[in-house]
Design goal:
The chain is an alpha/beta fold and 606 residues long. Helices cover 34% and strands 22% of the residues. Bound molecules: 6-O-phosphono-beta-D-glucopyranose.
């Protein structure tokens, strides 16, 4: 998964705006970066392996001027991170420069075909076939636009592409399967993989559909389909502002986003839950929306999968048949699906290819689909029958934090809607559940204010491994805690169902493997039994538990306290403690917290 950006304007400062855009897109990939600028002649290409700072250094020596430009920050799928494999890619004659996000699945046969006709390739990437094909069509006398269309028709796979051509003062772009949005601002245009890329310059956005082709010149743009027929796309103004996409004075986006959770949760809850009456109001899902639903299947990846697990448990314990699936597994071995099945794709970005593939599969098999996502206009939101927005605001840190909390709360509200439609009655404890949700913003703020996570992280640095255990609705929290710890500290961490420990993983437990046990005020006796098992093996125990649990305190070496609340809601403040623990552990180890190695914010390739 990469980030692409293009800028079209009269003023010659395309380089500055492209670099700002690339820095705002770096969470999408950061193993190499490049840009190309045009100023009348052919595209001027600059690219370097490594972070954007290396590209900037290269540009310091000789900054190209021009109003038209394209840029790219890379997350390798084909070919290692090198200067040659960095984008933009050109053809044999440097008349064409292209940046691309996605995978050209038929690049091998195209490359062989082009090679047979004498083309020479400089890189190992799938992308490089595009400029060579365009060059061929130009040589046959096609206009730049026609050469672009003919080339795109030959591509299969997923792509968002932007192109510059020598004798044209336009940027050409298109998308299929990979995200691409158009930013509009008085005669100036941006094309990018994500809105934050150009939020510093405009908040007027056009969300493009698969197959849309954009030709943008200073002063005007046209959107057509691949055949050239003009298509109408509306300009929407996004609510986010550049500050939302900035670090706000924190050392890392991740820490800023952890501290944004009280505000994000208020937005997620706004106008949706009334604890006094037990009413849940979800604008797009009026009562009766799901009367015909018999079962619910959640599909998701990474942190979103853990939120889906919580969503599934909340439904299961309230009488609605439900299961959560890893999207990549769902796509390869799908469970039975029919018209009475509701498939819910949980995906903050709305662009994760594995989740999109699972949703498309379910749709094709006759299921109804709903996207629970953070991004209005994302592919998941547009392809599913319906969408529920979690309203967490932009999340830049690669490791998801605030979106997990907003996902869990959104799924609890969505779950209540389903319970009423599917079972015909409200949950017995709905008032208590909704008041637990309503208290969350304040309770999470308390955790942020008094957490001892940094001291605990320091105390257990240099451990051999870190284990997280929990039961019921906090079992997914144990898994999420371990995932966060792995993602950003690179330490060995694993999450287990507490009861499963004695059936194998206990063999890994030693005096040098701290165990973080999460309690939810419901199954604590049993979890305490598991704590005693690891205590007996000399392992340090850190309890994440509500106040006043005397017995827990007796058996724990450290306690990360969380406020008392409904057992189905406890997981949110508990997870905030584990987010802080992971953040501080990684910070103490001086890890690149916002851009952990080998990862990316959402992976748009299967
Ligand atoms: C990974 C991210 O690439 O994708 C994780 O690093 C994230 O943080 C996962 O949880 C799923 O992303 P999404 O956007 O589908 O929720």
């Amino acid at each position: 998964m990469c980030g692409i950006i293009a800028r079209v304007g009269d003023s010659d400062d395309a380089v500055d705006e492209l670099l700002t855009g690339l820095e705002n897109l770096e969470y999408r990939g950061y193993d190499s970066a490049g840009l190309a600028v045009k100023n009348g002649g052919g595209p001027n290409v600059f690219k370097r392996e490594g972070e954007i700072s290396r590209l900037k250094t290269a540009l310091d020596d000789e900054t190209p001027s021009g109003g038209l430009g394209i840029g790219h920050t890379r997350w390798s799928t084909h070919g290692p991170p090198t200067d040659e494999n960095a984008h933009p890619h050109t053809g044999c004659g440097d008349r064409v420069a292209v940046v691309h996000n996605g995978i050209i699945e038929n690049h091998d046969p195209l490359r062989e075909e082009l090679r047979a006709r004498g083309h020479v390739f400089d890189s190992d990437t799938d992308t490089e076939v595009i400029p060579h094909l365009v060059e061929e069509h130009l040589a046959e006398g096609a206009t730049a636009e026609e050469a672009f269309r003919r080339t795109v028709r030959r591509l299969s796979g997923s792509y968002a592409v932007a192109m510059l051509v020598e004798d044209s003062d336009a940027v050409y772009a298109t998308r299929r399967g990979s995200p691409l949005v158009l930013g509009v601002d008085e005669g100036e245009y941006f094309l990018a993989s994500d809105v934050p890329a150009f939020l510093d310059f405009t908040d007027d956005v056009v969300y493009l559909d698969d197959g849309d082709v954009v030709v943008a010149e200073p002063g005007g743009h046209v959107i057509t389909d691949l055949e050239g027929n003009v298509v109408d796309r509306t300009v929407q103004t996004v609510e986010w502002d550049p500050e939302d996409a900035g670090k706000g004075g924190y050392d890392h986006y991740m820490l800023k986003e952890i501290h944004e959770q009280p505000a994000a949760l208020r937005q997620t809850l706004r106008g949706r839950a009334d604890p006094a009456t037990g009413d849940v109001t979800l604008d797009d899902f009026p009562p009766g929306t799901f009367d015909d639903v018999e079962r619910v299947q959640f599909v998701a990846c990474g942190t979103s999968y853990h939120a889906g697990l919580v969503g599934s448990r909340l439904l299961g314990t309230r009488g609605v048949p439900s299961q959560a699936f890893l999207a990549s597994e769902y796509a390869t071995s799908p469970p039975p699906v029919d018209g009475d099945t509701l498939v819910v794709g949980v995906t903050q970005s709305g662009e994760t290819a594995d989740t999109l593939a699972a949703l498309r599969q379910a749709h094709a098999a006759g299921a109804r689909t709903v996207a629970v996502t953070n991004v209005v206009g994302s592919t998941a939101a547009r392809e599913c029958d319906d969408a529920l927005f979690i309203r967490a605001g932009p999340e830049i840190g690669v490791a998801a934090t605030k979106t997990y909390s907003s996902q869990v709360v959104s799924l609890a509200l969505f779950g209540e809607r389903l319970v009423r439609d599917v079972t015909g009655s409200r949950s017995d404890d709905v008032e208590r559940l909704l008041s637990g949700l309503a208290d969350l913003p304040g309770q999470v703020q308390q955790v942020l204010d008094y957490s001892k996570a940094r001291r605990v992280a320091k105390q257990y640095r240099d451990s051999d491994a870190y284990f997280f255990i929990g039961r019921d609705t906090v079992h997914p929290v144990a898994m999420e805690g371990a995932l966060k710890f792995k993602e950003i500290s690179y330490e060995h961490a694993e999450g287990f169902a507490a009861g499963e420990l004695k059936h194998g993983p206990l063999a890994l437990v030693t005096p040098n493997t701290p165990v973080f046990a999460v309690f939810n005020d419901r199954d604590d006796e049993k979890t305490l039994g598991n704590v005693k098992e690891v205590e007996a093996r000399g392992a340090p125990v850190v309890a994440v538990a509500p106040e006043g649990h005397e017995e827990v305190v007796q058996h724990a070496d450290e306690v990360l306290t969380i406020p008392d609340t409904h057992p189905d809601v406890t997981g949110v403040p508990a997870n905030v403690q584990l987010q802080l623990l992971s953040y501080h552990a990684a910070d103490i180890l001086d890890r690149p917290i916002d851009k952990p190695r080998n990862l990316a914010k959402s992976v748009t390739v299967e």
